[in-house]
Design brief:
Six copies of one chain form a homohexamer. Chain A is an alpha/beta fold. Chain A has a domain of 227 residues: Ribokinase (UDP-N-acetylmuramoyl-L-alanine:D-glutamate ligase), CATH 3.40.1190. In chain A, helix 6 links the parallel strand 10 and strand 11. In chain A, helix 1 packs across helix 9, helix 9 packs antiparallel against helix 10 and helix 10 crosses helix 11. Chain A is globular, with a radius of gyration of 19 Å. At the A-D interface, strand 3, helix 2, strand 7 and strand 8 of A face strand 3, helix 2, strand 7 and strand 8 of D. Strand 3 of chain C pairs antiparallel with strand 3 of chain E. Chains A, B, C, D, E, F: GO terms for molecular function: kinase activity.
């Protein structure tokens, strides 16, 4: 199984020792992005993965590629052009103090400035079974939008399974209006087979009026011929946090049990869920097992540092089997 | 609004990685003190602040000044004299293992040895609206006591609002007896407008016998013409820690709701509360809002490293608004 | 009181910042082992302790000795021979993600390869009151087994109190079968006075059939003339972890209360319990007090980094006295 | 003496432990820029300094301001607008391996995007004696160029001493041609009193043909009514590095002795030299003393980490006095 | 060009901050080995590389694989078996204090215990142009020796270019005698095309008597039909260290100029030289250029941390072109 | 051989990463002092050592004791009393930028405040062969002076070899005048057998007028019946630093060769020299060999972090034998 992700790669600067940025000069760098996170997890589940992105041809771009390889993702399709990579800072949270994420400019990056016509999508798609496209591309620049549309269309035409996640961020590009964003999503959806999102993406972005969740998803999947629709959410009950997910397929909705969260670093929780779902679909597991696996992968990822999950299938199954059991004393 | 604090500045050596001091050689340094903590928070709420203290004229003193500036406090009134700064070690806690604080000698420091007559209080008070004096000065040396009395008196005479916090530490100076300490506090109280303390300060230090809390505070405030009396406390219920506070004014007591604590570093919690209260009084907020703001500032501070709170008003309001809400998945 | 421990010393590489090993290159080294952990705690309770082990005669062995001394243990009986020390990696856990321990080869170490005949046990036992032998020695190599048997026998003959902990790890040496391991334990038990273990050690390793716990321990202690049998265990109730222990003596079983755990690093919890029990027995404390002290020592140790407890008696008593009390605000 | 600098503030990410970026994830952050570096040094020499720049109104901008204050520079004139700050990575060198600097995009930053008309230069100049403008502003965007021209003109008209350093970087903005850059420098030079640059700036950028150094500088200073022209350079002789400088004034050139360099971090060497020269001019020192002081400040700065010099006058004089003397043994 | 290396992979623990191991607990981990080092450099020069080795199937083995991928080397041929990986500690040197390397046991590792018959060499060689075998395999165990012989023979028969480096370490396995080692080297040499070693390898290990260097190499290369023989050495002249190399081919010896060394971390200098030589041979560069490139790559590597060179061709050419030139001041 | 040192123990805070204190919050702690340094080295040369000092009875004092034990020194004679330990900050140097040491107050420490009458010197001296007293005790307080005199006298009377080093620091205690200090040194000298100092100590402190070095030492040793007088010094020639020493005995002066220094951390160089001299005297080595050994030990110590040398005899001999030899390439 060979999976390609198209998307922005970012540098993440994590402020050390649970400090606030204003308090320290020590940062830990990691290379992340929805595509990177998803592929990292899928690579650790045993699949061949590669990323299609653009990095600057300098030591920063080379560092990002080295990190990508370390995560188990092939960097053979990375294009080196332009002079910048997007970045953001993360201040880890503690109890009531939330994790805080602050982005730098994302529109001047090598990825955001790369013209759609400069990609060789035909070559990038060769040998690939599944293509993942991140919705962020629809919010960045005209170049990234055009590239996303073109890749989605070409992959769809060539019979690849096309995954997409909403990742709706209207505020990323000040020029974006609600209407413009809605049209862009509507334009890409006909090419998609598997989609990750939330109820709110359908109601707030796509202006669906349906209140009943099952009917809503049914209508949406029919409208765009979506095969699978899945999503996850965090909830807060009596001072505890929980994580749960759903999977909609063939007119039917499946819900996972909610698992308690003990968060070390919450970023990438949706990507960890998505890679778990994709693994279940690839392996044709029962949908309930698939959801349990996806939630477990995400709960583990949220109890770990950095965005990119690196758990093996055994790690996830162990967590499912032994969670909360009494343990021996050494 | 221009606020001056008078008090001891200390070096804090935090043992790294939640280790015990005996286990590691890695320390994180920060520059702290009741005055520093209070002003840091007030500076981040948008006020002009400056500290009146004494530091050694060497790289250690210069480091402390640089840290003070970084916190947003003016170091223009710092006096460089003597050859030492007080210090303490902090070993962070975990669960049942409490945070442990160990002080080095505090009586030989530049601040403790500075004669009251060597200060130019007239100049220090120029342009200042509020003066804060920390009760620790009453426990250290004859020099610090005399300076505190003189400054309180001069500020009061010049119509400045004078704040004071009890911070009662009898054991600091072995020569101190209960009677001596009581007299010292009684001597400074007539100059004070706003005071931070606890019920216990009144009963144990000042020997008030009144059991009813409201009556007790009423009597105390009448005796010394105190305008505002406020305090906070930590409680422990069914394995969880909570933080709450009160504000007494004009014969009436106001209580905050108790907020759950998830402590990363508990030092400075009272200073964070005090700076929140002062902000509410300056801004003439409703007393309940003032208490909610002060408690929130302190809860956030206790969920953060180091003594000195650096949250903006927006940070505190965000915590109040969104605390415990369900959140979205990225 | 002079206590000697015989056993394997290991290097522990703790992965920094709660990361997974695959995520970082930063490691913290500590020198550990059941004997080291136990003696470290006993040394901090005020006893003379020394370790009998074998280390390579190179900078790695010298580092281990320096660490042992730092823990308060005499290294005068350490033998320098061979060329290796065993090691393991620790990835700290968070919430649902368990702490993970991965061992490197333990059979090629200086300790595992040292012949029993090369020890001078007579000299090692001189001046010693209590000898502790770790059951791991029975799982490693023929050399460590023979040394353990010989030392146990000689110490017993010379009237020393001999302690032993099961620490049953069949999988350590692939050549070990259940039957072989059972016979080895049966061979050493007649020399033992105080033993640390669990119900499962008796049923699964020694094949006792008795279900009733008190009867089981009675039978076992009678069979081998064991004076004291003690053990601890971790349990999981409604999302919380608890720690409790028992002590069996003179046909009677004593149980501690269960204390809630907030784990920073769980390794060495049994050693912390054992050193607490030994202290109670040495000091001839009431058995309930002994258990409370041992549980408290272990709860504190599990809330601290590294295997080797370094709490003083005062630290443990303070925890017992003040645990969960409301505290003052600075 | 009150000095204002106008210019870009950048985040510098220094790769830890003399590693290459590809080898580690540990970074040290510092806040730098020609203006920051110059003012930091001048503040440590005892002058009042403030920076006029634009930072994003988020935790990153606040961090930069905190760092600026820590360096002794007032942040009262900082404008918070836009959403980004420029940044670069530094890999420290060792022997033959040169220090490597890699920039991210600098044109999308808050500073680069701030319109000249949005500054209140009148207010910014109030109370200021000397204004420093960095030539980088001429290479970035139309906005930064216009702001630099306007500020230079206004400061000149109001009788402030205006300093400028060439810092010629044609490649910064791809749209820049040699001719365009030349015209921009020619446009600002008539407003300048003190200028930092090199022979090459005059010959390569401004197309002067004169070969004789003294004549060249004379012609240049006459053409634009420049009062002082100074510059520094690094040379390499028999495996050793040296640092030297010159100062041209009133038709006469002064040369410093060359000092051997032992570089820890070479960035900011020109800024350290410039702040030394300015100090000599402010204090009306002899020109030879001024050059010796400026070279010493820069040699010390290059033997220290980070761009921004923080040496006091005493530090610099001590270095001049005791350099290379035999020292005592403790 | 596709290059395969066969050999031991080791964990390197570098003691932090130029400390001695006894002084600190902070270690930096890296994954190294002659094969890893050589391939890392070749991958950064643009070739496809993969390593044939054996790692434990646990988080330690997975960490090593992740590091290998990060260096640009394919881990697809890594075999997961056994339970250990070799390791060593490095204490960096300073001036007269030499860098110190201390190995742990290397014979119990997964690699040392893997049977030759368990490798699928046929598959490993498919698609490969050049095979590199490290001489360490001849010193470890019977299994590694047999595997090395078999791989060398099979690669030679299939027309691959076979490289070998002496890396003679008699003391690694106490069972090794001079005669045994000599015979083992004599057994593998007939399959080798390119060999890295020193004069001393020929005289001390292989007992050649010839004193004249050129004649010696001629005889050796004729005896075993070696196509290329190359080596490097460090020399010490008047307090400075220099690095130089030679290449023997077709009866002729070529010598590089000696370059001054400024060592940060000297390990892997021979591997950096070898990868430079191989690159020159692959690209059919002039032999003098090849030597200059190889020496430059090694000088840069010795001025960098860790064993594995990660310089690009551009980095090496830049060093050759600009070394020792005067530079500009920013 | 059993050696006791009497003296102040200090905490040393080393600023991390060659930064200046003002630049960073990261500190490395070590426990040092002339006695600690000397004994650490002697312990690593194989002797039994113990320190007689006073530490606070709190986690800071316990940390210091743990560090002392780690260095191989017995802490059985440490007295826990008072509430403070002296401390200083170290900023490491680079090239022209000198290492900078800044002390905090040293007169309020547990050691400085301990009364001479509270020591049990009789017990402390039992079993001891050599006693070392540091001259710093003569500069601190009346208590430390009296204790030093009493111990020197008692040790002398009991036939112990008494060592002393001048370590003349007049400025430590502002009350000290030249005359007072001279008298104090004159008072202790009659009890001393072996003394470490410099020519300057004799001329500047003791007011000797003799210019000829040999005659000067002869006169001094005769005046006070000193058996051995030794000292070391650092010199600076053509940009390089050198280290050399002398030993005066029986009317004859011996000089070492000067060794080039490559300093990482220069503190403790005199202590490393002294421990080398003492070792030579204990072992009755030839005086030239003794000096070479002492110089080598100090050169190695200055090329290492921290004050306390931890080199074994083999380390020192290896340095002497192999220094500057050409080495092999791995």
């Amino acid at each position: 199984m060979n999976i390609l992700a198209f998307g922005e790669v970012l540098l993440r600067f994590t402020v050390a020792d649970k400090m606030l940025l204003e308090q320290t000069d020590d940062l830990h760098l990691s290379t992340v992005g929805t595509g990177v996170n998803l592929l990292s997890s899928l690579a650790h589940f045993g699949y061949d993965t590669s990323i299609l992105t653009v990095l600057p041809n300098n030591p920063i771009g080379k560092k990002a590629s080295a990190d990508i390889r370390k995560l188990g993702i092939s960097d053979k399709k990375v294009i080196y052009q332009g002079n910048s990579i997007s970045s953001f800072f993360v201040e880890l949270g503690q109890g009531a103090r939330p994790q805080r994420v602050t982005y730098q400019d994302r529109l001047a990056s090598s990825f955001s400035q790369m013209k759609a016509s400069d990609y060789d999508f035909e070559k990038a798609l060769s040998g690939v079974d599944i293509v993942h496209i991140c919705g962020i591309s629809l919010s960045l620049t005209d170049q990234t939008r055009e590239a996303a549309f073109k890749l989605a269309e070409m992959a769809h035409e060539r019979g690849k399974a096309v995954c997409f996640d909403f990742n709706y961020r209207n505020q990323l590009n000040k020029g974006n209006t609600h209407l413009m964003m809605k049209k862009r999503y509507q334009k890409i959806l006909p090419f998609i087979d598997i989609i990750f999102g939330s109820k709110r993406d359908l109601t707030d972005l796509l202006d669906y009026q349906e209140k009943d969740e099952t009917k809503l998803y049914r209508k949406f999947c029919q409208d765009y011929q979506i095969n699978f629709f899945a999503g996850s959410n965090r909830s807060f009950v009596e001072g505890k946090k929980y994580f749960a997910g759903f999977l909609f397929h063939d007119n039917k909705i499946y819900h996972s049990a909610a698992k308690e969260l003990n968060i070390l670093d919450r970023i990438g929780s949706g990507d960890a869920f998505a890679s778990g779902i994709l693994t279940g679909l690839i392996e044709k597991w029962d949908f309930d097992d698939t959801l349990e696996f996806a939630i477990a992968n995400s709960v583990l990822a949220q109890a770990s540092m950095n965005d990119s999950p690196i758990f093996s299938r055994e790690d996830v199954f162990n967590y499912i089997d032994y969670e909360g059991k009494n343990d021996l004393i050494r």
